[in-house]
Design goal:
By secondary structure, the chain is mostly helical. It has one domain. It is built from 13 helices and no strands.
């Protein structure tokens, strides 16, 4: 008997790709091409949508069983993770104002490097020397891509590296802080608690750092109602990135997820170049390719080292 194609899994992967690439491209369009230069407020919109939609999905629709916070200490740990999570998203959105999506993705691919370094520094967790060796092409690729990037912007580069390091830090901290069986939360429940905390931090930050952003957004909406639909759609996509990531993780293997994740970055690069037509160089693309190869080698080395 022929194996049936798992269309439900294919659909989840397609939704995961679409939401990931969609929110990335729409962020770039809003912050750079459209001229909505308020990355903190945009992140606030994302987290507000994640708060509301997480509640609907878990409490009302019961997509996953609800997990409760069992202690004040656990709440403080989640709050700490939320701050790092906010920082990574804000920095990532800021970087999109200055860098093309292709270069942004090249830098983002170095997450394994920062994860390995931070895990070693913070927990003394060591990998096999072969695993560390595979990180060399990851870093070398970004250095080469930086040198060959026609649209290189130093501040945007620093923000993107900061976002990548913060994502790695959140991953390491999550393993440290929520390591006991009684405190572990699945990604959907973790988002349910992190998103409202993020809103509490982001609201005063947006009002202080991006003065009159609410008045400006309202005035802009009166001139062009499309900005309202852009923000609503973009914020909803930000939630579906997390939802589809959870579903794909649940229905595929870790190895499949790694392969799909690496391919997703490459697809995002190609689509962004086709849409925004940002200039690229052979050296820049070669550097990005080297980084992706390094990430694949790192994943394989990690798998064999277990």
């Amino acid at each position: 008997m022929k194996n049936q194609i798992p269309w439900s899994t294919v659909g989840m992967v397609a939704a995961w790709y679409s939401s990931n690439i969609g929110v990335l491209l729409l962020n770039k369009y809003l912050l750079s091409n459209y001229g909505f230069k308020y990355p903190v407020f945009l992140t606030l919109c994302h987290m507000t949508a994640c708060s509301l939609l997480s509640y609907v999905a878990i409490v009302c629709m019961k997509v996953v069983p609800m997990q409760t916070i069992k202690s004040g200490a656990q709440f403080l740990k989640i709050a700490g993770l939320s701050v790092v999570f906010c920082f990574s998203i804000v920095c990532g959105n800021v970087s999109l104002r200055y860098l093309p999506v292709s270069f942004n993705q090249a830098i983002g691919a170095t997450t394994p490097f920062f994860t390995a370094v931070l895990a070693y520094v913070m927990t003394s967790k060591k990998e096999a020397w072969v695993t560390y060796l595979t990180l060399l092409p990851v870093v070398a690729g970004v250095i080469i891509a930086s040198g060959g990037e026609p649209s290189f912007h130093l501040f945007g580069f620093i923000m993107c590296v900061s976002a990548t390091a913060a994502r790695a830090l959140k991953s390491v901290l999550q393993d440290i802080l929520l390591s006991s069986d009684g405190e572990k939360l699945n990604s959907m429940n973790l988002l349910l608690y992190m998103a409202p905390i993020a809103v509490v931090f982001l609201l005063p930050a947006a009002l202080l750092m991006e003065k009159n952003v609410v008045d400006i957004t309202v005035a802009l909406a009166k001139k062009d109602i499309k900005i309202v639909w852009y923000l609503l759609f973009n914020s909803s996509l930000a939630y579906f990135v997390n939802l589809t990531n959870f579903l794909v993780t649940k229905h595929t293997s870790a190895l499949t997820l790694q392969v799909l994740g690496n391919a997703k970055g490459a697809v995002a690069v190609v689509v962004s170049i086709l849409i925004f037509k940002n200039p690229i160089s052979v050296i820049g693309m070669a550097g990005y390719g080297l980084t992706v190869v390094g990430v694949v080698m790192y994943s394989e080395a990690k798998k064999k080292g277990r």
